[in-house]
Write a structure and sequence with these properties.
The chain is an alpha+beta fold and about 70 residues long. The chain is built from two helices and four strands. A four-stranded mixed sheet has the order 2-1-4-3. A hairpin with a 2-residue loop joins strand 3 and strand 4. It is globular.
Length: about 70
Amino acid sequence: EADYKVDDRITVSFQTTGDVQTALTQFKDYIAKETLATVIQEEQLKKPDHSKTVTIEEREVHCAILKSPLK
């Protein structure tokens, strides 16, 4: 939906609570590796390229992504 290339690097943010927050925090290195994220943070992105709210285990999870700058 954000029209990225498969090898683009991204910053991912999420906001949620409870067990879902615990799991996302515990597995953030794995998630980063699988999504090519350079950063996974709980702080909300100020100007994301794309954001969506989904429900996991009856908890709302707000996710947002931003293309990381080239290095």
